[in-house]
Amino acid sequence: MASTPQIDLTVVGTTLTITGGNGSGDAGQALTVKGGLAGSSNFAGGAITVVGGAGDGTGAGGAATLTGGASGAGATGAGGAATVTGGAALSTNNVGGVASLIGGAGAGTGNGAAAVITGGLGGATSGVGGAVTVTGGAGGTAAGAGGAITIVSGAATAAATAAGAVTINPGLSTTSATAPAVTITGGAVGTTGVGGAVNIAGGVGGTTSGNGGAVTHNGGAGGTGGTGNGGATSIVGGASGTGATGAGGAAAVTGGAALSTNGAGGAVTVSGGAGVGTGNGGAVTITTGAAGATGVAGALALTVGAATAGNGSAMTLTAGNGAGGTASGGNINLVPGTAVSTGTPGEIQVNSASGLFSVNWQQYLAASVPVTGTSYTMFIADRAYRVKGARTVASSTGAVPTIDITKDTGTTAPGAGSSVLSSATSINTTANTVNTATANSTIATVTLAAGDRLAIKWGGTVGSLTGACVSVLLVPV
């Protein structure tokens, strides 16, 4: 049987309680407090105000509490919700009513009261604490955007005082449980839209020489009493879509641009963490993206910014200095990429040109004319090298001699090894004209190991040769 509607009005001492009627075999009766209906067109409906009583002297003001009802004592009943909702707009284009939660204003030197939204306490037996969700309103079905969410700390009004900080901290975990993550995610979109950006920006500096606010990404510190590592910090571009051509999102770290008359742009610094005691300092590794099944791995470019006036800036690579005793300085190691099968290995280049130095044979005296069919050692490798090519020149000759450059290994006699050129080359077709010879295309043939030798092998008719010079270009490998 349904309960008879009733309202209980109770006065105990100085307390006034208004209670919906108790249920009689069914739900308790609701209690609704409504502002009055407007009497005529264009007037506002009556407001509802719930105000705690004012204190006297040093007494605190009375609290105002909005609490959902407790559930029944059975197994599954949920506590009643407590909802504060702004009024809906029923006119053609008006805005819905605002719902505000505001801490009370302080007086004198008193602080303003905090505004706290707290999820409910979890039950004693494995209950999870209640979540707190702040959600912007959904947009209209035709074209309206969803409502924004803004978290703004309190503004300072007095001179030279700081505005309030904004802090987002997950709850504290206990013992060995992992602390919860803090995730800030740009909004999801429809099938062809762009995902929402996430912008974290330091505050704008004051108009009179104030610095802009810094933005700092810090991984969490390891526990002070153990061997826990510090948390990593990662900046990762978003993954592309699964279709045929989408590129992964870029990850960029860019120093701030100077907008003043002669100010310097902001520096970008990548520093490994400092070690303690006998611990090593953290390495700095820059690795380009791996290629897909048939793609090329990403290139790595270190480029000094372009000058708009004056000299270009230098680029410096500096290894670490030793410290104390006889400690050695650090090396700078340049390692080109290896090739697969018969592919050409990577090389160290300067201005996109291979070859770092040349070895030369020079005819010092006109009387020192080589004999056809003889060979002379001109170079002994002290490490691994690769031959890139050769050039020859002569001042004069009565004939047209040829030379070949051979790689001689072990106890092989000079000139008896494999040719490192594609073919023997003429040393003089026109006086004082340089002739260029290309290297053999087989990588193994043109690669020298420590102890291998290069020899000049003379052919053709040497004749009255003068002013001859042979140069072989090499690159360390």
Structural description of this entry:
- There is one protein chain.
- By secondary structure, the protein is an all-beta fold.
- The chain has one helix and 14 strands.
- It has one helix at residues 443-446; strands at residues 7-12, 15-20, 349-350, 353-354, 357-362, 375-380, 385-393, 401-408, 418-419, 425-426, 435-438, 447-448, 453-460, 469-476.
- The strands form four sheets. Strands 5, 7, 11, 12 and 14 form a five-stranded antiparallel beta sheet that branches.
What is the topological layout?
Layout: E1 7-12, E2 15-20, E3 349-350, E4 353-354, E5 357-362, E6 375-380, E7 385-393, E8 401-408, E9 418-419, E10 425-426, E11 435-438, H1 443-446, E12 447-448, E13 453-460, E14 469-476
Antiparallel strand pairs: 1-2, 3-4, 5-14, 6-13, 7-11, 7-12, 7-14, 8-9, 8-10, 8-13
